[in-house]
């Protein structure tokens, strides 16, 4: 082969490589970004949904930020950050923090329930059951955890369950020795309207003991898996997704439906701007598209796929219970398909 032919082949190869690099760069650059702030308990479900959706919509780049639900919405209301979709573990977080200033509507789409997770490494793992779970938690040397109530609905739900357990089992030491001993500045007021738990904005937390606090419920999973934590209050879907053992709580306490007594958590007590009262009711997840959304059309298309098409199976696969959708406010007509 002559030198001239070799030179021509080299030029052609370089040109093709350049074209390939050019089109690869531009195809990646031109992908439309879809940013989602969401509850940590939705992380694995949305991870699978992201892969499936991007497989059929190669022009879309879904970017997700998991956190506690309250923290997720405060990224918008307090920090002025932008996203295209918000999905939270308590639909009222959207009502309380985003509507009407930052969002116009709220779509309630699934439910869950609270369980007590553990592993084979946990103390008394082969003894704990639905009847004695609180007695196990009270035993010396047992460490358990829940997430920060001010940042995460799973946390204030866990806190309420422990309080309700002291009423349900008629044993005050459940609340006193599992919570008050480690967060002594929580206040309780009970009257004819219900039971009110005041959780301070800046609370005293005595660490190193039985109770372990983290910002969101997912943070406790790693501690369970490495054996530095024995038990954690989590959502049932989280337990299933991570292959954890768990104890089902009594129906009166697990928040699959409304609990047997009226309980209210007053979050950020002591901060007039952020203080919120939350009624403890059956778990319902919600979602919305904020007013500062930059990719509204694609947000609608993704949610329609998630709620009414293939994404619906992914939600159920991850242990969530789909419920008849509830529409609050000006929910777009495209998302009211079967209203």
Order of helices and strands: HEHEHEHEEHEHHEEEHEHEEEEHHE
Major beta sheet, specifics? 6 strands, mixed
Work out the number of β strands. Answer: 15
Please state the second-level CATH architecture of the largest domain: 3-Layer(aba) Sandwich
List keywords for this structure.
single chain, 339 residues, alpha/beta, D-Maltodextrin-Binding Protein, domain 2, 2 domains, six-stranded mixed beta sheet, 11 helices, globular
Topology:
Elements (H helix, E strand, L loop, with lengths): L2 H27 L2 E8 L3 H14 L3 E8 L1 H9 L7 E4 L2 H7 L7 E7 L2 E5 L14 H6 L5 E4 L5 H16 L3 H9 L6 E5 L2 E7 L10 E4 L4 H8 L4 E5 H6 L3 E4 L14 E7 L6 E4 L5 E4 L7 H13 L2 H7 L3 E9 L10
Helix pairs in contact: 2-11, 6-7, 10-11
Describe this structure in words.
- The chain is of the alpha/beta class and 339 residues long.
- It folds into two domains: 32-111 and 284-335, D-Maltodextrin-Binding Protein, domain 2 (3-Layer(aba) Sandwich), CATH 3.40.190; 114-279, D-Maltodextrin-Binding Protein, domain 2, CATH 3.40.190.
- Helix content is 36%, strand content 25%.
- It is built from eleven helices and 15 strands.
- A six-stranded mixed beta sheet has the order 2-1-3-14-4-15, with helices on both faces.
- Helix 10 (296-308) crosses helix 11 (311-317).
- It is globular, with a radius of gyration of 24 Å.
- The N and C termini lie far apart (72 Å).
- 40% of the residues are buried.
